[in-house]
Design a protein that fits this description.
Radius of gyration: 19 Å
CATH architecture of the largest domain: Roll
Distance between the termini: 55 Å
CATH superfamily of the largest domain: Ribosomal protein L9, C-terminal domain
CATH topology of the largest domain: Ribosomal Protein L9, domain 2
Number of helices: 3
Order of helices and strands: EEHEHEHEEE
Oligomer: single chain
Largest sheet: 4 strands, mixed
Number of strands: 7
Strand content: 25-35%
C-alpha cells in the first residue's frame, strides 16, 4: 500500500515522502496513529495544504527534545534495586523503570518506547550506557547505575 508520511519514521522516510509499505503496517499502525495517510490524489492535495503546519510541529517537537537532551546530558541515573544473597536482582530493570528514573531526576517525561535496551532488560548490578531516542533526529546516551537497595 502506498502512503504519504506525515512525520519522520526511522528507516522509512521524512514527512511528505510517499512510500510503499505492507498493508497491515499501514492499516494497523501508520494510519491509525496519524503517522501516514493513504496516497491518493485528494490526500496529496490535503497534505500539501497542511505541510507548513506539520513542519512547525516537527520543529517544536525537536526543540522540546533538545531541551530534554540538555537536561539529561552528563547525568547518571542511579536506580536502587533489591538483591538476593547471591547478588542477583529480584526481577529486572526495564524501560519503564528507566523512564521513571529519568522523570524523577530531570522532570522530563520520556516515553518507555524511546529507551533502547540493546541487550534486553538489565539483570545485574553495575553501570550501563543506555540510548534514549528523544526524537527521530536526536538521541542521547545516559549512564544508568544499578545499586543495591539499602
Amino acid at each position: 500500500m502506498k502512503v504519504i508520511l506525515t512525520e519522520r519514521i526511522r528507516k522509512l522516510g521524512d514527512p511528505g515522502t510517499e512510500v510503499e509499505v505492507r498493508n497491515g503496517f499501514a492499516r494497523n499502525y501508520l494510519i491509525p496513529y496519524g503517522k501516514a495517510i493513504r496516497a491518493n490524489r485528494e490526500n496529496r492535495a490535503r497534505f500539501e495544504a497542511m505541510r507548513s503546519e506539520l513542519e512547525q510541529r516537527m520543529q517544536s517537537e525537536l526543540a522540546d527534545a533538545r531541551k530534554t537532551a540538555e537536561q539529561l546530558e552528563g547525568k547518571t541515573l542511579e536506580i536502587p534495586v533489591r538483591v538476593n544473597a547471591e547478588g542477583g536482582l529480584y526481577g529486572s530493570v526495564g524501560t519503564v523503570e528507566i523512564a521513571n528514573a529519568i522523570h524523577a531526576l530531570s522532570g522530563a517525561s520520556v516515553s518507555k518506547n524511546a529507551i533502547r535496551l540493546n541487550d534486553g532488560a538489565l539483570t545485574e548490578l553495575g553501570q550501563y550506557e543506555i540510548v534514549v531516542s528523544l526524537h527521530a533526529d536526536l538521541a542521547v546516551t545516559v549512564e544508568v547505575v544499578l545499586t543495591e537497595e539499602a
